[in-house]
Amino acid sequence: MTEAGPDIVKPKEVEQFSTYSKHIIWFSWTRYDAGRIIGIGILIKDNVVLTNYADNLNINFLPFSNSVMVKLKGFAVYGLPRFVKNVPQHSLVDWMKAINYGQNLPPKSSETQIALIKLSRRLNLNVKEVAVMRLPDKKLSITDLQKSNCVVIAWGNLFYEDLVETKAVVLDTDKCKRMIPELYSNAICIDIPDPSRSKTTHCDHFSNGSPLICNGILTGVVSRQNPCNGSKPRICANVYKFRNWITAGIRALGAYIPKLEESTSYTKHMVWWGWRTSDKKYVTYSVGVILNEKVILTSYAANLTDAMTVIDNEAKELQGFTVFGIPKLLSEIPLSNSVYWKEAVCYKFDENPKPFEPQIALIKLSKEIEFDDNTAVAVQLPTEKYSVNDEMTCVVIGFGKNYSDKIVQIKAIIVRKDICRRQIPDIYDGAICIDVPVDPDEDINHCNLYGDGAPLICNGILTCIVSWQKPCLYQLPRPCASVYDFHNWIKLRAEELKSSSLSRIHSTKIYLTNCSAYQLKSLLPNGEGGHVLKNLT
């Protein structure tokens, strides 16, 4: 960008850099019919933005690839008064939830345009770069506003990469109605000073969602005019007159904050399992449920029969472990609560499973688990077909995000089959799709909440086993394998595992060049929602 010299630009008459930029958020999302949209808003709470309009992305689906329909996140940028293509991560925050005043969306140019966006996390505020702007607490008449010093904060026309303030004048309401007969009540009309003498119009200086600030007070939100007509005034929503709706909207957004993770009584059915090298340096782990004294149900497990690793130029056995009766991660595993394993069988695959195909696996333990009514109990498989629907109360049992070292129950919702099929056309018949309840209060999704192998419990019934994905796609629902649909296979193979050595199961001898934890990934899929590597030393 070529900077204009002082003899060409008179900032006080046209545009000038603004101290109000610390209150501004610029944000973006994608619409199926309009492509990428960029808007401006005002930070009125540490996680709420006031603007003119935004799609509620929780209910919007967009084409992704191979006809897959996905739910996308928008992003917002804070603390940057200049437009940049590559925004640093520390200035980015996601958003999905939005509330609009009107029912006719997107609103017409002459209709009320005011909306709230909820950011996916609370911002760290500071007085210089990121600050909340207070809502007005005093009513000002149009006459008062006409006497006020008013500016609009938006992308500049001359300084087009920067957020600048441009002087604005408030027009008489009767005059505005003559020019815009369909003008709604509670509107403010503005324009640039003396537009007849200017080479530019408000179309060049005012952006959709820009704040109108008069005498330092947040006064209006600039509406979108489509197409923009510089010969007519620009409409703003009067923030003071919509303050009750704004306050109620902030409360409504807060009402969508669910407590996703909580303690569970289901831990007595759970194990966490994995494997480590013979020198016990590294471990990768997942979760599963107890089927009987010697068999664990999960989504995928490598058969470790004959699996070897190389440590200090010496071939050593690779063996798995299972921990029961202890619903939290420990660096030292008590022998009384651990059992080794080497044999496993998976449904229809020997190597890495495909993300949208059935994933069910069984692990055979080297010795029986000693059952205890309080700490180690076999799970009951469903014996009757029942309808899985989006009205059921469901939880995933596993390691959470806030409680990453403790087995908890995490809220989940069933995604309707038609919606899941629309989003994932290649998913196998009979798959159950789940997702996180809408609008969590953090940057979380099923990828960092639901681990593979975790059971989904709906209305108290073991319903499905969460599948592995790599890469994990938070935009898509998470597939689960129905326990009832695979009931016969699970029961038959569990009995075989309990009573036989499974010597007939094919396995490949595996050699790892060193004891690096990352090398162990070759034995087990590892994705954002999958098994985690941990150093026990």
TrEMBL record:
- Pfam families reported in the protein's UniProt record: Trypsin (PF00089)
Q: Where is the Peptidase S1 domain?
A: 8-251
Q: Which PROSITE patterns match?
A: TRYPSIN_DOM
Report the superkingdom from the record.
Eukaryota
Q: Has UniProt tagged this entry with the keyword Disulfide bond? A: yes
Molecular function GO terms recorded: serine-type endopeptidase activity
The answer on whether this UniProt entry bears the keyword tRNA processing reads no
Task: For this UniProt record, give its keywords in alphabetical order, as a comma-separated list.
Answer: Disulfide bond
Give GO BP annotations, semicolon-separated: proteolysis
Similarity remark: Belongs to the peptidase S1 family. CLIP subfamily.
Protein's recorded name: Peptidase S1 domain-containing protein
Q: Lineage in the entry?
A: Eukaryota, Metazoa, Ecdysozoa, Arthropoda, Hexapoda
